[in-house]
């Protein structure tokens, strides 16, 4: 099954809307409702620690019982986000054909009648870190894996088999021999069955994983086998989240991600990588469309010119494509305003990166 944004997530996933924020008299530290200060729930990166926790503690957690945490790791472009979306049953992570699309750890909740898995989709593991952003993205990988009860390492079946040591090293470090690890051989639809068998054999022989399962995340083939493997390995805990919610990032996180996806799809070469998207204002209006103001930060004026295009046409195209998906996602009409700004070398600026929500860490309970 192909996933689309029109598969609407439950509105519960929003933590605080503008009205709640006003009521609570909160001044956000950064535009995307994320900061280094970490919510006590240890999952989200939201800045409003106390209230967020207040809100969530009634969500069914009992004492210190366990949920199942699953980290989805792998190199860029292997299909981690596609697999995570399929497992959750909703498009939470953006997907493009370009490597390094995912920059944060994205939490998805997969609830069944008798289980609840909490999945972390992560940025692709890269060896060469060109910018501080890359380093912080790798921190996000580690923060997803540090509490994981099990790890899925996704590899691309089309690629020549290769060791996964560096992926495990980056992700789980010293813990690598302690957590059950499944190698997910993805994109099996792109190779012949005989080749799949050879790849399986190679990975079974030359990697230190508990099992190898071939899947085609894009078409949903083998995804149930992955879930069964996770369930077979782990003790079941009580549901932490209400069964009908799929994530707990605030809506503005998904709005920014949708705009970023459209940038990746519309622009080429370095441009998408030089873009950061922030939601600067999100106003819910009872008698009018929601008003969303987004800024796209680029590193150079030349990139700004490309983004805007001749007579603003490119930016208009981008804003329309983003708005349509945002409306699908939120299931309501919105007014979307997109502005492009230049902040030189933001990818190297630790302060800015933190403001943009990278490098948040997870607090162990
Ligand atoms: N044919 C085929 N394509 C797939 C499959 N899974 C993912 N893809 C494609 O592979 C590309 C990358 O998918 P993503 O899910 O964004 O990969 P990722 O590992 O999350 O990538 P990063 O976030 O950049 O690390 C997209 O074009 C997907 O449509 C699959 O099973 N079969
Ligand atoms: Mg991804």
From TrEMBL:
The keyword Nucleotide-binding applies. InterPro entries: G_ERA_dom, GTP-bd, GTPase_Era-like, KH_dom-like_a/b, KH_dom_type_2, KH_sf_prok-type, P-loop_NTPase, Small_GTP-bd. Its main location: plastid. PROSITE patterns: G_ERA, KH_TYPE_2. One of its GO terms (molecular function) is GTP binding. Residues 66-236 form the Era-type G domain. Residues 186-189 are annotated as: G4. GO terms for biological process: ribosomal small subunit assembly. Pfam families: KH_2, MMR_HSR1. SUPFAM superfamilies: P-loop containing nucleoside triphosphate hydrolases, Prokaryotic type KH domain (KH-domain type II). Residues 215-217 are annotated as: G5. Residues 100-104 are annotated as: G2. Residues 74-81 are annotated as: G1. Residues 267-344 form the KH type-2 domain. One of its GO terms (cellular component) is chloroplast nucleoid. Keywords: GTP-binding, Nucleotide-binding, RNA-binding. It is found in: Plastid, Chloroplast stroma, Chloroplast nucleoid. It comes from the Eukaryota. The keyword RNA-binding applies. Residues 121-124 are annotated as: G3. Nuclear genome-encoded probable GTPase involved in ribosome biogenesis in chloroplasts. Plays a role in 16S rRNA maturation in plastids and may contribute to the assembly of the small (30S) ribosomal subunit. Belongs to the TRAFAC class TrmE-Era-EngA-EngB-Septin-like GTPase superfamily. Era GTPase family. PANTHER family: GTPASE ERA, GTPASE ERA-LIKE, CHLOROPLASTIC. This is GTP-binding protein era. It comes from Solanum tuberosum (Potato).
